[in-house]
C-alpha cells in the first residue's frame, strides 16, 4: 500500500488535508506524524501550514523537522501547501525578516497596501477567496482545466529567483506566483483541501506522481 506522511509540527489544519488526501485515494495510507522515521519511510510527503512564518520556522527548528524536510524534499514526491510553500523559499519579509528552508531559492513578499482592482476598488489583505489559476505545464495539473478557481487565504506571496520554478500564477491585481515546482517538489499557495473538485484532483495527481516532470 502506498503511504503519504502529513508533517505535524503543531501548526495547520492537518486533519482537513489528511481527510482530503484519503478522499482523493482511499487506497493510500495517510499518516499525520512528527516522527522522522515515519516521514522518511513514507512514499510521499505533504507539508501544510497556516499562521506566522516565525512560529513555523521556530517549531521546525526546535523539533528537528527542518532537517527532515530538507532531506525528504530531495528524495521523494513532496507537496507544500500555503505556509508550507512559503517556508520552502530562502526568506520571508514577515516578522521583520525570517530565514526559511532555502529548498527553492526565492523570497516571500507582502501584498502592498491600498491595491486597486480594475474598477478602482481597494483590494483587501489578506487575499481571501476563490481566484483563477493560470497553469504552467506540470503533471499535477492533469485533468484540471486551466484557469480553474482555487481557494486562497494569504497576505504574502512567493517570488522565486528562477522564473522556471513558477508552476502557476494568479492575479491580485498583478500576476503573482501561486504554485512552485522544482524537481520532485511541488508547492501551492492555495488550499487544495478547500478547493472542491479541482483541489481533490490535484491531490489525486500528487498521490499518483512519481516525482518527475
Task: Give your account of this protein's structure.
This protein has one domain (3-208): Class I glutamine amidotransferase (GATase) domain (Rossmann fold, 3-Layer(aba) Sandwich). The strands form three sheets. It has an eight-stranded mixed beta sheet, with helices on both faces. A four-stranded mixed beta sheet has the order 6-5-7-11, with helices on one face. Strands 8-10 form a two-stranded antiparallel ribbon. It is globular. It has 213 residues and is of the alpha/beta class. The longest helix is centred in the last third of the chain and has 13 residues, at 196-208. It has helices spanning 14-24, 36-41, 53-63, 65-72, 83-86, 196-208; strands spanning 3-7, 29-33, 44-47, 78-81, 91-92, 98-99, 106-110, 127-132, 134-135, 149-154, 156-160, 166-171, 175-182, 185-188. The relative contact order is 0.17.
Give a brief description.
With 213 residues, the chain is α/β, with parallel strands linked by helices. It is built from six helices and 14 strands. It has a single domain (3-208), classed as Class I glutamine amidotransferase (GATase) domain (Rossmann fold).
Low-confidence stretches: none
**What name does the CATH topology carry?**
Rossmann fold
Strand content: 25-35%
Order of helices and strands: EHEHEHHEHEEEEEEEEEEH
Q: Count the helices. How many?
A: 6
Spatial sequence of strands, sheet with the most strands: 2-1-3-4-14-13-12-9
Task: Describe the sheet with the most strands.
Answer: 8 strands, mixed
CATH superfamily: Class I glutamine amidotransferase (GATase) domain
Overall pLDDT score:
96
The CATH top-level class label: Alpha Beta
Structural class: alpha/beta
- From the N-terminal CA to the C-terminal CA, the straight-line distance is 23 Å
Q: What's the number of structural domains? A: 1
Query: How many strand units?
Result: 14
Radius of gyration: 16 Å
Q: Which CATH architecture?
A: 3-Layer(aba) Sandwich
Percent helix, as a range, is 10-25%
State the shape: globular
Amino acid at each position: 500500500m502506498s503511504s503519504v506522511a502529513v508533517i505535524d509540527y503543531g501548526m495547520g489544519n492537518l486533519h482537513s488535508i489528511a481527510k482530503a488526501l484519503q478522499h482523493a485515494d482511499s487506497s493510500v495510507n495517510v499518516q499525520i506524524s512528527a516522527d522522522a522515521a515515519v516521514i522518511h519511510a513514507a512514499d510521499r510527503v505533504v507539508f501544510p501550514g497556516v499562521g506566522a512564518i516565525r512560529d513555523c520556522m521556530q517549531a521546525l527548528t526546535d523539533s528537528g523537522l527542518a532537517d527532515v524536510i530538507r532531506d525528504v524534499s530531495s528524495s521523494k514526491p513532496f507537496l507544500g501547501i500555503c505556509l508550507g510553500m512559503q517556508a520552502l523559499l530562502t526568506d520571508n519579509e514577515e516578522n521583520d525578516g525570517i530565514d526559511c528552508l532555502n529548498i527553492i531559492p526565492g523570497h516571500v513578499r507582502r501584498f502592498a497596501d491600498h491595491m486597486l482592482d480594475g474598477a478602482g476598488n481597494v483590494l483587501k489583505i489578506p487575499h481571501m477567496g476563490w481566484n483563477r489559476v493560470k497553469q504552467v505545464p506540470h503533471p499535477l495539473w492533469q485533468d484540471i482545466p486551466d484557469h480553474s478557481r482555487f481557494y486562497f487565504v494569504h497576505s504574502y506571496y512567493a517570488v522565486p529567483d528562477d522564473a522556471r520554478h513558477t508552476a502557476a500564477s494568479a492575479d491580485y491585481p498583478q500576476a503573482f506566483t501561486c504554485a512552485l515546482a522544482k524537481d520532485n517538489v511541488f508547492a501551492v499557495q492555495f488550499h487544495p483541501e478547500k478547493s472542491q473538485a479541482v483541489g481533490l484532483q490535484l491531490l489525486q495527481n500528487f498521490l499518483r506522481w512519481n516525482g518527475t516532470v
